Amino acid sequence: MDKNKIIKSENIRRSANLPDYETALATFSWSAAHDVLDFMPGGALNIAHEAIDKHLILGQGEKIALRWIAKTGERTEFTYEELAHLTNKFANVLQAQGIKKGDRVYSLLGRKPELFIAALGTLKAGCVFCPLFSAFGPEPIKARMEIGGANALITSASLYRRKVKGIRAELPSLRNVFLIDGEAEGTNLLTDLMDTASDEFSTVPMKPEDMALLHFTSGTTGRPKGVVHVHEAVVAHHVTGRFALDLRPTDTYWCTADPGWVTGTSYGIIAPLVIGVTMIVDEADFDPARWYSILETEGVNVWYTAPTAIRMLMKAGRDMPTGHEFPHLRFMASVGEPLNPEAVVWGNEVFGQPFHDNWWQTETGGIMIANYASMDVKPGSMGKPLPGITAGILNVTPTDVQELTEPLAIGELALRPGWPSMMRAYLHEEARYNKCFRGGWYLSGDLAMRDSDGYYWFVGRSDDVIKSAGHLIGPFEVESALLEHPAVAEVAVVGLPDETAGEIVKAYVALKPGYQAKDGLRLDLLGHARKRLGPAVAPKEIVFRKNLPKTRSGKIMRRLLKARELGLPEGDISTLESDEQ
Ligand code: ATP
Ligand code: MG
């Protein structure tokens, strides 16, 4: 990876909206960021007040908050005022059904307007919102509802019948199930209740430290954790939406994250609405032609997506975007996995600007390290810590932590706790939570390095890093080199035990259409990797697969590939999605 390659900020299509990075660092404080919120009478805080009610007070109720595109292509628009009334109705429904402040309200829905109404209505009522992936099977749903003590669930009739009905008897805390369509015994039809509910509701004033959200981690490395976030987190959502996504009130914004994942809440609901943008929500699954058309016809200004989707667009080929124009598109960002330099450069060619990678976790609640909106982009780097965030690269031993300051030293990526959206707990797992902190740092579990310009480079999750013949090999570097080859659509590498080298690198490759999994191609790829990486780091073995095992949030599950190679148990695979040999 060429750490000196730079896409200069003046070549990025953007007008000055933010202070430059250095000025922002020098002037930022969390207390000032806290004070710019609207607040409720008496200084109380509620995320939903900042996201919805505030805009009515400011006289902006007429503005479109949400433009929903159904699978059929039909569009429905909701103004801030309409969302205010609908979320008021939902909060009234919860209260009328005996659901109280602090109760846990879950959603199991695809990208439906009801999801947004439920999330914000739940917060208005002072309840805790917990989204689940609609693709989950009954067991992962049950496990997550048990951990969080779910009191209410909002879902569709078909999801209920297929996934919840059979486990309902084992969930004694689950008192209410609201269906957005259809009927089933022991449930209520939401529209019936909403129709008769008042559209006036006084949002419940909350203390900043009151619990607002429960998010489960992706389960990439093992059993998912139930992460607790509080209302104060909205301070960070607001600020990072501006710094890392360049969001402005005049923007049309499209976040493609699944609503069952933290990105779907922090940046798919809260940050954009607090800033006051118009959000695009597409109900349909990923489809390259549809995506290009949405970017163009909806006039998307800011687009937040993920490496897996970008790689799929690349796989669909350069002809696909031809004929489309994206004059409105000002800022593109990516999260969830390392973004290969190849993808950043490709974005620059197709859209006239690079994707801005940013790094964070369910635990951090918001973006921590980012290619700040007015900064030069180094393809392959996650960027720099946002204002208000202190990051470090640590050498962690069983007894000690030590900060590594020399450039390009590899160590654990750590953060100094204290930003508002930081998790407050792993629900019911105090020991697991406490293990994340050492010597005044929060340990992320990821390995990274920092270059002499202060840019951070992702190396791999600490569990995925490979030690071979005295080299520490980050899977990301090897995968990025293989991805440069025109035949490669996706790739994952793992380390396998080897008597002489300690570990050797094995790569799993999914090919682009038109390429055949033949020995000649395998040799070509091995040769390419050796040339790019040197023989010590290049894979010793390459196997072809249809696709790679991924979590529902689009993260490659390297641990699963490794466990299978070693004949070990597969562990928790509740979030496993694509996985074809
Ligand atoms: P689990 O903690 O259950 O194993 P997970 O870590 O995948 O799952 P998330 O909180 O959804 O759950 O994902 C956060 C992780 O995703 C980060 O720790 C990092 O490994 C990876 N990640 C996110 N963004 C980036 C990025 N821009 N570059 C590299 N890795 C990233
Ligand atoms: Mg994690």
Automatic annotation (TrEMBL):
PROSITE patterns cross-referenced by the UniProt entry: AMP_BINDING
Q: Which residues cross the membrane?
A: none
Region forming the signal peptide: none
Q: Do you know which Gene3D superfamilies this protein is assigned to?
A: 3.30.300.30, N-terminal domain of ligase-like
Which leading EC class covers this enzyme? Answer: ligase
The UniProt keywords, alphabetically, are: Acetylation, ATP-binding, Ligase, Nucleotide-binding
Task: Give the EC number(s) under which this enzyme is classified.
Answer: 6.2.1.1
Q: In what residue span(s) does the AMP-binding enzyme C-terminal domain sit?
A: 477-555
Indicate yes or no for the key word ATP-binding: yes
Residue span, AMP-dependent synthetase/ligase domain: 60-427
Record-linked Pfam families? AMP-binding, AMP-binding_C
GO molecular-function terms, A-Z:
acetate-CoA ligase activity
Q: Which NCBIfam families has this protein been placed in?
A: PRK04319.1
Q: What is this protein called?
A: acetate--CoA ligase
Native organism = Pseudohalocynthiibacter aestuariivivens
Record lineage:
Bacteria, Pseudomonadati, Pseudomonadota, Alphaproteobacteria, Rhodobacterales
